[in-house]
Amino acid sequence: MSNERLLFSIHDVAPAFEDEVDRLHALAQPIVGDRLAMLVVPNHWKSEKITAGTPFAARLRGWAEAGIEMFLHGFTHRDDSDHGDAAARLKATKMTAGEGEFLGLSHAEAARRIADGRARVEDIIGRPVAGFIAPAWLYGEGALAAIREAGFPLAEDHLKVWRPADGKVLHRAPVITWASRTPARLRSSLWVANAARALPMPRTMRVATHPPDIRVPALVDSIGATLKVLAKKRRPAAYAELLG
């Protein structure tokens, strides 16, 4: 199974979701151990900045020291942009509930938030972040330019993982994820996960979870079942392995 990889991640890691992050970690740990990624939001919805010297900062450093990959996941996760473009407005309203922070940012503002968030997280964990993943996997042109210039090793969206420096695609396949915002989204995400467990899938698979998932028993069952099935033919792996 040298090239058969299972890449598991927990999104929206922030003080407000500490309990949910713990529960998702506990759910996956029997299968992936500490071979997972956490996507850290430095100031989730501008409610509480992650600050050095706090108990949550200590936990972040402990997770990083245990081998968990730490990605920068935006800065606030909240989309405050005024989307003049119709396609961007559609993404901002239909693909997420006001959380696509980096979809409408200018190059300068995206770069400022990236620099601030990166410095904050790296100071706390004592090492470079593994990469950058935009909230809701949504990137505008300004964000794409900013992450390329920032020199992150990795970035990802719904469909692929790539190297920002030159745009090289390192892995191409849809991520398996869940949603509970509406009954329709919940049903569709369960259907997709069921299909992923039953149909032939790529050798490398990404599985992404979010804090609200752990509050819905049907999603908890689906996440656990999906990890168990995918792990039969794949080993838990780090995103960094995609760099070769």
Key traits:
single chain, 244 residues, alpha/beta, seven-stranded parallel beta sheet, three-stranded antiparallel beta sheet, 7 helices, 10 strands, 16% strand
Work out the radius of gyration.
17 Å
Q: By helix and strand content, what is the structural category?
A: alpha/beta
Q: Major β-sheet, in short?
A: 7 strands, parallel
Number of helices: 7
The residue-averaged pLDDT reads 92
Portion in helices? 25-40%
Distance between the termini: 16 Å
Beta-strand level of the residues, as a percent range? Answer: 15-25%
Morphology call: globular
The tally of strands reads 10
Low-confidence stretches: 86-95
Order of helices and strands: EHEHEHHEHEEEEHEHE
Protein model, in words:
The protein starts with a strand and ends in an 8-residue tail after the last strand. It has helices at 18-32, 55-65, 86-94, 107-125, 141-150, 183-198, 217-231, and strands at residues 5-13, 37-40, 69-72, 131-132, 155-156, 160-163, 168-172, 176-177, 205-209, 235-236. The protein has seven helices and ten strands. It is an alpha/beta fold. Helix 4 crosses helix 5 (141-150). Residues 86-95 have low confidence and may be disordered. Helix content is 39%, strand content 16%. Strands 1, 2, 3, 4, 8, 9 and 10 form a seven-stranded parallel sheet that branches. A three-stranded antiparallel sheet has the order 5-6-7, with no helix packed on it. It is globular.
